[in-house]
Every structure is written in C-alpha cells, then in structure tokens.
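User: Could you go from structure to sequence for me? I need the amino acid at each position, not a summary. Structure tokens:
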C-alpha cells in the first residue's frame, strides 16, 4: 500500500482507465474498508501544493477502520498491530478520534515512532495535499513536515527531479507558514538547480516560476494549496 516518491512525481502520462474501489482488511478486527487504486485514474492537472488532480479525487484515499477509526496508511508489522490494538483503547486515542483523518495518521506515526523514511515524508505530503488547513493551523505539524522534507532532500541525488520536487514543495510550505525569508531563499536555490538540471521538466520550471509570483501574494486564493496550478 505504500507509495513511492515516483508515484507522486508522475507526469500525467497514464492512459485514462476507470478506477474501481477495492477493499482491504483492517489490521485490527479485520473489517473491510474501501480504497481507490489511484494508478487507474486519469490525471487532469496539478494544484499549487503539487498534488496531481484526477477524476478519482472524490474516491476514498486513506482507509479508515470502521470500528476503531484507525487510519491504515502503511502495512503494519505484527508487533505494530499488537501495539495499535492496545493504543486504540486508550483515552489518548479517544480524545483524538475527532481529528482530521490524515492528522490521525500522523498521530499513529508518532505513536509508532515511524519517522525519517520516504514513507513518512509521503505521509506528510498527503496531509498537505488533502487536509492543508489542518497542517497549516498546527505549528508542530508544520515543523514535522519541514523536518521530514529536509531528511528526504539529503536522501535524494543532488539535482535530481525528486530532489527538485521536494525542495519546491518545502519552499512552498515555508512560504505558506509565514517563513518567507527561508522560503524565498530555498526557492531561489531550487530555481537555479532546475534551470541547469537535465532531468527537470518544463512543467516543474513553470511551477517554480509561478511559485515565485506567489511568494509575494501567498494568501491570494490562486496561491493556496488546493488552487489549480495555472501558468501565467
């Protein structure tokens, strides 16, 4: 179930295929939950948060166990399932049940101490993509996003498309969270890298040019995370 960074970086080349929801068993209790295989979706564009839009955006993306409310964002190990079986019965978990789904997934990652991997960076990306208001309203979540992105940058080849993507989205989150000086400095760096990188797509260069405009008007509706990315 885990995604790779290349899934996130796909350039809308997939042929349109009708997506069908599938079911997976909850690791606790075994109840069936639905999830849509996003690789079957017809890509339609990008948002300013670098989320690909598709004709599947309204389908369930994060499986949620119906009884416990546990978000299933990874293939949990047997020991993790044992720990989570106890965790979902705690008062701490009960107090967090009304949080947004992707925030609860971060809570579970905190409980399991599942940080510092590509999977954990993609978890934070999904929080930005699907529930950006919840991310930006919580300074601790913003700090977690920044730290996971910084780790991902060190893990990827210098100047690669993956690193350009990660630096771009990090610059964007820095701008969104009011860290304008850091965001602008990183944006300048990634623009220079993208211009000289053979692997960087014209689409990414266009996005970076658009982000440079948004740096001066980040609160404008056209620059917010769910706004469509439109070149000007």
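Assistant: Here is the amino acid at each position, in order:
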């Amino acid at each position: 179930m885990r995604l790779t960074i290349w899934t996130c970086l796909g350039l809308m080349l997939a042929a349109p295929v009708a997506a069908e929801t599938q079911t997976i068993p909850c690791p606790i209790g075994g109840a069936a939950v639905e999830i849509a295989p996003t690789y079957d979706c017809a890509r339609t564009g990008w948002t300013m948060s670098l989320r690909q839009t598709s004709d599947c955006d309204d389908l369930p993306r994060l499986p949620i166990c119906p009884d416990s409310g546990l978000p299933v964002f990874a293939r949990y190990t047997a020991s993790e399932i044992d720990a989570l079986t106890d965790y979902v019965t705690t008062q701490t978990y009960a107090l967090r049940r009304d949080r947004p789904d992707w925030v609860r997934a971060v809570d579970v990652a905190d409980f399991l101490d599942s940080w510092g991997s590509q999977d954990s960076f993609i978890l934070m990306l999904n929080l930005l993509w699907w529930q950006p208001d919840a991310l930006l309203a919580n300074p601790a979540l913003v700090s977690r996003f920044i730290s996971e992105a910084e780790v991902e940058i060190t893990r990827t080849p210098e100047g690669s498309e993956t690193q350009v993507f990660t630096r771009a989205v990090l610059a964007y989150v820095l701008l969104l969270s009011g860290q304008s000086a850091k965001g602008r400095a990183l944006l300048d760096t990634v623009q220079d890298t993208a211009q000289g990188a053979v692997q960087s797509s014209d689409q990414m260069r266009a996005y970076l040019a658009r982000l440079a405009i948004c740096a001066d008007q980040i609160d404008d509706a056209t620059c917010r995370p769910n706004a469509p990315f439109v070149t000007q």
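One structural detail worth keeping in mind: Residues 1-18 have pLDDT under 50 and may be disordered.
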